[in-house]
Design goal:
transmembrane helix; oxidoreductase; single chain; transmembrane; 270 residues; Fatty acid desaturase
């Protein structure tokens, strides 16, 4: 897809509006800095971005790299829905599409089209890959819990805002909603952009994916992206001793507690 083709895609104005409001709210949060607000944002960053998106939507649901009891799976789906990155069916469908066509022309955030496009530019347009979501989500599309979160992730954010306002006023809303969403968004997007451009490749993955340590720090282990693309069904992304993977540590804890089973890992010579 050339730049000219990108410009012909229909603009997704609702995304433009939402992302603009989130960033304006985050700016206001930093103008009204508080340590309590920052702590709240970091805790919710881990709950929604770490447990929800990274562990839940990505490793558990998109790749089925391990199994947990259904109630716990739904809890992780709930946490991910509070990250407001679309609904779980939409997100999982697009992620599976990305893995099938990684860095090819039909990949909706193909890194060959530049950092801006793969980071967030693609979301400003109505990309054709959205039409293929039903093809990739047959295992979850008819689940009423998934459908509920797919339909109501935005109202859930409003409810969370009211709860935070009741607890800590506008400062908690600015930090717990807007600043936290801004941080979760860009951390997630760095996996689509930075880890396809910066770092090292230790495995053949037939795309541009790379292992980037600083993205791994920001995303609870998702920065070991070349490892992931080489062994996409592995619950563990950091394969070397220096590749710290906090999400793998969490999965290991769940396995020790008897809450995670059928944990998939690469072969011994990986």
């Amino acid at each position: 897809m050339t730049i000219a083709t990108q410009q012909k895609l229909k603009i997704s104005w609702h995304f433009v509006a939402i992302i603009s409001i989130v960033h304006i709210g985050a700016f206001l949060a930093f103008l009204n800095f508080s340590w309590q607000g920052l702590a709240l944002a970091l805790v919710l960053h881990w709950v929604t971005g770490g447990l929800g998106i990274t562990l839940g939507w990505h490793r558990l649901i998109s790749h089925r790299s391990f199994q947990v009891p259904k109630w716990l799976e739904y809890f992780f789906v709930f946490c991910g829905s509070l990250a407001m990155q679309g609904g779980p069916i939409w997100w999982v469908g697009l992620h599976r599409h990305h893995h099938l066509y990684s860095d090819q022309n039909v990949d909706h955030h193909d890194s060959n089209k530049g950092f801006w496009w793969s980071h967030m530019g693609w979301m400003f347009h109505e990309v054709p890959a959205v039409k293929e979501i039903p093809r990739f989500t047959k295992d979850i599309a008819n689940d009423p819990v998934y459908r509920f979160f797919d339909n109501f992730f935005f109202p859930m954010q409003i409810v969370l805002g009211f709860v935070l306002f009741a607890i800590g006023g506008w400062n908690f809303v600015l930090w717990g909603i807007f600043a936290r969403l801004m941080m979760v968004y860009h951390c997630t997007w760095l996996v689509n952009s930075a880890t396809h451009m910066f770092g090292y490749q230790s495995h053949e993955s037939n795309d541009n994916s790379r292992n980037c340590w600083w993205v791994a720090v920001l995303t609870y282990g998702e920065g070991w992206h070349n490892n992931h693309h080489a062994y996409q069904y592995s619950a563990r992304h950091g394969l070397q001793w220096w590749e710290i993977d906090m999400t793998w540590m969490t999965i290991s804890l769940l396995r020790t507690l008897g809450l995670a089973r059928k944990v998939k890992l690469p072969s011994a010579d990986a």
